UniProtKB/TrEMBL annotation:
InterPro entries: Di-copper_centre_dom_sf, Tyrosinase/Hemocyanin, Tyrosinase_Cu-bd. It holds the Pfam family Tyrosinase. Residues 86-103, 263-274 form the Tyrosinase copper-binding domain. Keywords: Copper, Metal-binding, Signal. One of its GO terms (molecular function) is oxidoreductase activity. Residues 1-24 form the signal peptide. It comes from Mycena alexandri. Gene3D superfamilies: Di-copper center containing domain from catechol oxidase. This is Tyrosinase.
Length: 338
């Protein structure tokens, strides 16, 4: 994927000037197709899982000492930046860039030839009001299922019952089946590094938040800021929304704001959120293609997010201004949802 990034590392003045003046789309040679998990062939599913396992077998590049693998590097960056990238205006742009770097890394370092898959949970929840039966959690052609049931499980710090409206999940322990049973995480829970298995605690109590009715309510929001708040959810909204609904429905590893990218399904959940954002942008592209706003930090003093705000990826990738990741069809992103 050197070609994909080449324009950004180019020192040629003319190209840089052109880029600044246009402040818009630099067209891609090709777009990778991001597909819904169940629409992929079994062969494509295995290729994706193998690529993630490849990242889990490559050595870390050392952002934090406790990170063992390239897969951990991504989790480490997310943990480090968590307080700057949630509940703020850059929430969606940051995660769009993060997923794109993950996708490009799978391609450049693990020979993956496809696009990042997404998980359209509405396709499960609209039918079953549950995520349990989702093909995403298949133990052969998916990410494995629920964690082993631990009665009274209330999170790694045993304090989730403090959350308003908390209903215990149906798992909590190690995921016993699927492709990720033998991979122990080195980071998390939260900001603490521990050697632990991948855990899940499915909780269908929150599945309603992922229905197509909820998606429609989100995409009808008139401004970027209200759209982002309605998508991201608690504690700014009084009830669960698409973003936190997905994290809570899967539970355990996925429930921790810092360390949730330890569950490989994180990337499919966030790809779907990114797809919902792109859907919202496309409903009024002339207005919304470059529409961002919102506070830059959770606590004052904060500035308002603009297109010039730079997204940090630490040691994963160079800084880019939000302007450059507003259009998935343009460099440096180059993907399309199908
Ligand atoms: C992020 O990394 C910086 C630099 O290593 C460190 O000072 C900071 O404590 C880290 N923050 C978190 C939340 O891990
Ligand atoms: C649970 O404890 C952890 C670690 O002390 C803390 O970070 C987290 O905010 C707590 N969660 C709740 C819901 O109280
Ligand atoms: C993986 O973590 C679990 C605890 O979650 C532990 O029981 C197991 O021994 C660890 N496996 C390895 C190979 O470190
Ligand atoms: C739909 O969106 C509005 C904001 O426009 C929000 O107040 C309301 O709670 C949402 N409805 C549901 C069911 O989430
Ligand atoms: C951010 O934008 C809001 C709404 O337009 C405005 O009220 C506020 O003063 C701005 N804050 C800063 C720090 O520019
Ligand atoms: Cu996040």
């Amino acid at each position: 994927m050197v070609r994909g990034f080449s324009i950004w590392t180019c020192t040629c003045a003319a190209q840089v000037v052109l880029l600044v003046q246009a402040s818009a789309s630099v067209f891609c040679a090709t777009l990778v197709k991001r597909q819904e998990w169940r629409d992929m062939t079994n062969n494509q599913k295995i290729q994706y899982i193998d690529a993630v396992k490849c990242l889990q077998s490559l050595p870390a590049k050392g952002l934090v000492e406790a990170a063992r693998t390239r897969f951990d590097d991504f989790q480490a960056a997310h943990i480090n930046l968590t307080d700057e990238i949630h509940l703020v205006g850059q929430f969606l742009p940051w995660h769009r860039r993060f997923l794109s770097v993950f996708e490009k890394t799978l391609r450049s370092e693990c020979g993956f030839i496809g696009g990042l898959p997404y998980w359209d949970w509405s396709r499960d929840v609209d039918v079953y009001n549950s995520i349990n039966k989702s093909p995403v959690f298949d133990s052969v052609y998916g990410f494995g299922g629920n964690g082993i049931y631990i009665p009274g499980y209330a999170g790694p710090f045993n304090n989730l019952s403090n959350l308003p409206g908390w209903v215990p999940g149906t798992g909590g322990g190690c995921v016993p089946m699927g492709p990720f049973t033998s991979y122990n995480l080195s980071l998390g829970p939260g900001t603490i590094p521990t050697n632990h298995c991948l855990t899940r605690a499915f909780d269908d109590e929150y599945a309603w938040a992922l229905s197509s009715t909820q998606v429609a309510n989100t995409t009808k929001q008139p401004s970027f800021e209200i759209f982002r708040i309605e998508l991201e959810g608690q504690p700014v909204t009084p009830t669960m929304k698409l973003h936190d609904g997905g994290h809570f429905a899967v539970g355990a590893e996925m429930l921790n704001t810092y360390s949730s990218p330890g569950d490989p399904v994180f990337y499919l959940h966030h790809a779907n959120l990114d797809r919902v954002w792109w859907t919202w942008q496309q409903l009024d592209l002339p207005t919304r293609l470059f529409d961002v706003s919102g506070r830059s930090t959770v606590d004052p003093p904060f500035v308002n997010i603009t297109l010039a705000f730079e997204l940090k990826m630490l040691n994963l990738a160079p800084l880019v201004p939000i302007r450059d990741i507003m259009d998935p069809r343009a460099e440096p992103l180059c993907y399309t949802y199908v």
